[in-house]
Structures are given as structure tokens and as C-alpha cells.
Amino acid sequence: IAFFLFVFVPLNTLYIYIRFQVISDTPHLFDTFHMYNLAQTNIVVFFIFGFYLNSMSFLKSWKKSIAKNKELERQRLSYQLQALKNQINPHFLFNNLNTLSQIVKKDSDLAEDFINQLSKVYRYLLQQKEKDLVPIEEELKFLESFLFLIHIRFKDQIELTIEEEHLKDFFIAPIVLQLLIENAIKHNKTSKEHPLFIQIYREGEFVVVKNNFQPRGSVAYSSGTGLTNIQERYELLSNKSIEIEEDFKVFLVRIPIIYEDKNLINI
Prior knowledge:
Elements: H1 2-22, H2 32-86, H3 88-103, H4 108-127, E1 134-135, H5 136-154, E2 158-162, E3 171-172, H6 176-187, E4 196-203, E5 206-212, H7 227-237, E6 243-246, E7 250-256
Parallel strand pairs: 2-4
Antiparallel strand pairs: 1-3, 4-5, 5-7, 6-7
Helix pairs in contact: 1-2, 2-7, 3-4, 4-5
């Protein structure tokens, strides 16, 4: 604005006056009206040119701001995701160390088997610590060792079925199935007379973990992970959320299926 008022307008007026009045061979053809029109035209051209330059500058700054915000968002999501993943190990250890403390006094051989399987499971946790996603096949293989620990603890009180033939060729957040099984056990009564039935199967673009609903009178200690952890992880990893349904008969959680380079965000 300052350049326009104090530089362009005076110089433009002076130029028109000199060019068409002082040094012109036909100054009578350019009266005040004509000179005003010329000045007006030059001012319009200046505004168009100035608008173009300011628009380009604005777009450049806008793109730079978007790139900076994306980088900050990427860093924020990365930090959040790492923090959420770090919550898993304490949650897992708390539950299984409690189990170990109960059986070590009763059966030393069983305790030794439990420790061996626990080491296999924990090795998997360490291997997946830096990963955001794993193939569903790896997660199901991990469940074999994990379910051995569950069987030692609950024996015939829990029955779990997995429809593996439909659970192939996609990705899942690591340790999600384990957390959902633990969540079902933690919140429901289990006994030989009234066992807890847990099913894992595919339903469209979701992996479903379903159990019969027989709630405990009181719930065991929770470290604050579980469903909240899974929900937050999937909000960071994909454009979908988990779905939860419950009534007086069943409780189920639907986990979105993630395909590589399709739903995964760039973290």
C-alpha cells in the first residue's frame, strides 16, 4: 500500500504527463480526461500484477505451513503410538506374573512349563515392539503360546475357537487379540459349569472377537489399557474405528482389517 501510494501513483502520473503533454507532438489530443483514463488503466494493471504476486506468496506460505503442520502431526502421532505400545508390556506382565505366583507354590513342574511358554510369548512382544502392524498369520501363531498360558490358568473354564481359514492376507495391530481375550476373561465369570466361550472370526472387513456375557460381580485390577488402548491405536493407524456391541447375551468387538498401503497412514 505504501509503495502504491507514495511511489507508483506519483511516478505513474508524472510519466503520463511528461509522455503525453511535455514531449508529445500532439498534446492537444490528450486532455485531462484521456490522461485520467490512462492513469486508471495503469493502476488496474498494477493491482492485477500485485494481486498475482501476493497470491503466489500466499500460496507458497500456505504450502509451507501445511508441510510443517503435517510434519508436526506425524511426530505427534508417532510419539502417541509409541506411548500406547509401551503400555502393553506392563499390562501383559501384570496378569501373567499374578498367575505364576499362584501356581509356583502348587506345582513346580507346571510353573516351569508356564515360564517356558511365557518366555516365548514375551519374545514375540519384544520382536513386535517397534512394529505398528503385523500379518494376521503372525498374530495367530503368537496366540498358540498365549493360549497355552490361558489353559494352564483356567483349564476347562474357557473354550476358544478361531476360524483361521478366513483370517489371512491382511494386517492387524500387534497384541490386539491377546488384549481382547484378556479383557473378556477379566470381565466375565468362568467355571466348568458355565465356561466362557470366546470366538475369533472374520466378518466382512472386520476381525470379530466375541464372547458370551456373564459379568463378574467385581472386576480385577486394570492397568488402564484394554479397549481404550486398542481404540486409540486404531485411530492412529487407520481411518476406521473399532466397533463394540454388547447386550445381556454377548459382547463383541470388531477390529478393522488393514491392508498394506491402503488404510495405513504415513507415520
